[in-house]
Amino acid sequence: DVQLQASGGGLVQAGGSVRLSCLVSGFSVDDYAIGWFRQAPGKERERVAYTGVRAGENYYDDIVEGRYSLVRDSTKNTVYLELNSLKPEDTAVYFCAADRQAFKLWVLREPTYWGQGTLVTVSS
Predict the structure, then answer these.
(1) Contact between 114 and 2 (Cβ < 8 Å)
(2) What is the distance between the alpha carbons of residues 39 and 17, in angstroms, rounded to a whole number?
(3) Measured between alpha carbons, how far is 48 from 106 in angstroms, rounded to an integer?
(4) For 22-32, what is the mean pLDDT?
(5) What is the pLDDT of residues 78-121, one digit of tens each?
(6) The pLDDT value given to residue 52
(7) Burial readout 29-58 (b: 16 or more C-beta within 10 A, e: otherwise)
């Protein structure tokens, strides 16, 4: 069975950092584009970042303003999203997702697999 397990959320003060994890089972993270999305209360889900199958293929949406960073750990079959310089408007449920085709994940925003979300709350 394929599972994407997101974790690492919590309460953090503005300006702080948090690292989210997306632990994947059922396929290798080296073979799929792995992405992160977020949804704030009352708002639509928006894309955040993704890492492709090619080395160094990391892309970030403009909304993160250079504050986020992706790390792929093949030995742990996990993709991490590091959130830095957090702002209250970063408060959201963060989801990881995966698809063999980066286009489906990033452009169409219709990845084959979704994980459950992890809540990040940034206090001012």
Answers:
(1) no
(2) 18
(3) 9
(4) 97
(5) 999 999 999 999 999 999 999 999 999 999 999 999 999 999 99
(6) 94
(7) beebbbbbbbeeeeeeeebbbbbbeeeeee
User: What are the φ/ψ torsions at residue 110 (nearest 5 degrees)?
Assistant: -130, 65
Q: Which phi and psi (to 5°) does residue 14 adopt?
A: -55, 140
The label of the residue with tokens 């219709």 reads 110
CA distance 21 to 18: 10
Tokens of 20: 């989210």
pLDDT score for 96: 98
Q: pLDDT exceeding 90 applies to what percent of the chain? A: 94
Q: Provide the residue count of the chain.
A: 124
Six-digit token pair at 33? 């584009």
Confidence bin at 55 (pLDDT 50/70/90): confident
Q: SS3 sequence, the chain? A: CCEEEEECCEEEECCCCEEEEEEEECCCHHHCEEEEEEECCCCCCEEEEEECCCCCCEEECHHHCCCEEEEEECCCCEEEEEECCCCHHHCEEEEEEEECCHHHHHHCCCCCEECCCEEEEEEC
